[in-house]
Design goal:
five-stranded mixed beta sheet, binds zinc ion, alpha/beta
Length: about 290
């Protein structure tokens, strides 16, 4: 990680300067820089999106890895993330790097799913080893464990869980929303399809906007919107959007918020958003 901070990882473009090797990214053919490899490459972005952190990796305007690192760690701490999230962040970086090396040096072509499985396994193992090491009582929670505490919905509120899915080949995206009332009983669910939008970050933001439009049409006035994209919640709650592609959607959402008596835009870990996740996956795969 240290080497990375000082731009010391020998990525394609750095090697190209030293050895005159082709500087192309092995996944997409673009110029391979540290930022491209770890955050911007389409392959990498799908890993960030699908791993439990659900990061939109093109977020922000960081120009170096060090900047990205510092901003992300402080962002994670700000929202009170556990050490688990920070280790997930580190293992995601590590496995992207490892996957890239396996592809170049061993000609192994791992899938996104494989890579994510390694990330989760390593992060879980690391957390378990920390627990043993400190031997202090703490929450024994793994990333894949089902939700153990009931999520109580305040009286008079509706809770809408949203999620998105992409079909890169067919260049389209899906959003799915599930509504529950204050007895935690599922009331209804909807889905929508977007042709020619397959950017995960944009789709998650669109999912929130669809959820809001739906809630307005149902005359639900006190609504909790829950999604597992950390940055969607952060941007909407901070009322600051520095991403041009999302600006318009954000402004819609901020405007729509005026139609409610109360709204709360909440982030939940992916494991707790499984109903919305499974629903949108079913829509994507046509299992309805
Ligand atoms: Zn690439």
């Amino acid at each position: 990680m240290k080497r990375c901070i000082h731009d010391g990882i020998p990525t394609g473009s750095a090697l190209h300067h030293r050895l005159q090797l082709p500087p192309d990214c092995k996944w997409c053919g673009e110029q391979e820089t540290v930022l491209h490899l770890l955050f911007l490459c389409p392959f990498t972005r799908h890993i960030w999106f699908q791993c439990p952190l659900n990061f939109r990796s093109t977020w922000g305007t960081h120009t170096s890895f060090a900047q990205h690192w510092k901003a992300t760690i402080s962002q994670l701490k700000e929202i009170g993330s556990s050490s688990q999230d920070i280790s997930l962040y580190c293992f995601t970086l590590w496995h992207i790097w490892k996957t890239r090396n396996n592809l170049i040096f061993r000609e192994e072509e791992p899938t996104i799913e494989d890579t994510i499985r390694y990330i989760i396994t390593d992060a879980n193992e690391f957390e378990q080893s920390q627990i043993k090491h400190h031997s202090v009582p703490r929450r024994n929670q793994t990333f894949q464990s089902p939700q153990s505490t009931a999520n109580i919905i305040p009286s008079g509120f509706m809770k809408l869980n949203y999620d998105a899915a992409v079909d890169i080949q067919k260049k389209r995206g899906f959003v799915g929303i599930i509504a529950k009332d204050d007895h935690s009983i599922q009331r209804e669910k909807i889905s929508a399809q977007f042709r020619f939008i397959w950017d995960p970050g944009i789709l998650k933001m669109l999912a929130l906007r669809e959820a809001m439009n739906w809630a307005i049409s149902q005359h639900w006035k006190k609504v909790i919107f829950e999604g597992d994209a950390l940055q969607v919640s952060n941007i909407i709650n901070s009322r600051q959007c520095s991403n041009a592609a999302l600006q318009g959607i954000c402004e819609d959402i901020w405007y729509l918020q005026n139609s409610f008596i109360t709204t709360s835009i909440q982030y939940i870990p992916r494991t707790q958003n499984s109903e919305a996740h499974n629903w949108v996956q079913a829509v994507k795969h046509g299992i309805l």
